[in-house]
């Protein structure tokens, strides 16, 4: 009654359906896994845990463009004041990176920027540098052309020596030349410890 071919076909169908059932089962397992992992991640969101692969960056990792930072505090060479505060600058200025003191400052993220974590924090490694209206090229021209009148030192805010330079007409020429050399070798700098303004 059952031919050899029918039995063989039956086995093949049986084999096929059993595997189909397995595949369907595996697929639903996978879907369940995915949905449960999504559920845990959304739970993590609501409990405010930082997800490193999430869309939000930590506020403290934002670049400076997104922050409003205080200026470095000037302790004016008062070591105890700096130790009390924990940060700040003893001195300002310096030409090379190694000469410049670095400090922490308080930064706040701009209100419209979305990020994770505290929006106000301290950022380290800010240089103790400030700029005022002192331009190197202008001062050099003053020194070259009007050095015998002490104009360069007047402009740098070194009024005392400027008056001396004016009264001696630039040290009868010697001080005039010495100051040009000092200026070029960066030993004659603004009195207020500001750096040369690079934004001409
Ligand atoms: C240095 O700062 C401390 C703490 O602010 C202050 O008590 C002290 O008078 C200051 N010293 C000088 C020399 O200004």
In percent, how helical is the residue content? 40-55%
Instruction: Work out the radius of gyration.
Output: 36 Å
Q: How many separate helices?
A: 7
Please count the beta strands (DSSP E, at least 2 residues each): 3
User: Can you tell me the residue ranges where pLDDT is under 50 for at least 5 consecutive residues?
Assistant: 41-46
Q: What overall form do the CA principal axes indicate?
A: rod-shaped
Distance between the termini: 104 Å
Strand content: 5-15%
Structural class by sheet pairing and helices: mainly alpha
How do the strands of the widest beta sheet line up side by side?
1-2-3
Major beta-sheet overview: 3 strands, antiparallel
SSE arrangement, N to C:
HEHEEHHHHH
The ligands bound in this entry are: 2-acetamido-2-deoxy-beta-D-glucopyranose
Overall pLDDT confidence:
86
């Amino acid at each position: 009654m059952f031919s050899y071919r029918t039995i063989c076909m039956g086995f093949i169908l049986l084999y096929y359906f059993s595997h189909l059932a397995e595949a369907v089962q595996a697929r639903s397992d996978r879907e369940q896994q995915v949905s449960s992992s999504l559920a845990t991640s959304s739970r993590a969101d609501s409990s405010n845990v930082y997800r490193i692969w999430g869309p939000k960056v930590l506020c403290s990792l934002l670049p400076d463009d997104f922050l409003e930072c205080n200026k470095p505090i000037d302790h004016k060479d008062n070591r105890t004041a700096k130790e009390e505060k924990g940060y700040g600058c003893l001195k300002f200025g310096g030409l090379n990176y190694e000469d410049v003191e670095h400090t922490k400052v308080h930064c706040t993220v701009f209100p419209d920027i979305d990020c994770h974590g505290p929006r106000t924090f301290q950022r380290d490694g800010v240089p103790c540098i400030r700029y005022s209206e002192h331009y190197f090229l202008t001062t050099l021209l003053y020194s070259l052309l009007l050095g015998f009148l002490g104009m360069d030192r007047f402009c740098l805010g070194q009024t005392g020596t400027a008056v001396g330079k004016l009264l001696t007409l630039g040290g009868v020429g010697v001080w005039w030349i010495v100051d040009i050399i000092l200026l070029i070798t960066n030993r004659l700098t603004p009195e207020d410890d500001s750096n040369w303004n690079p934004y001409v």
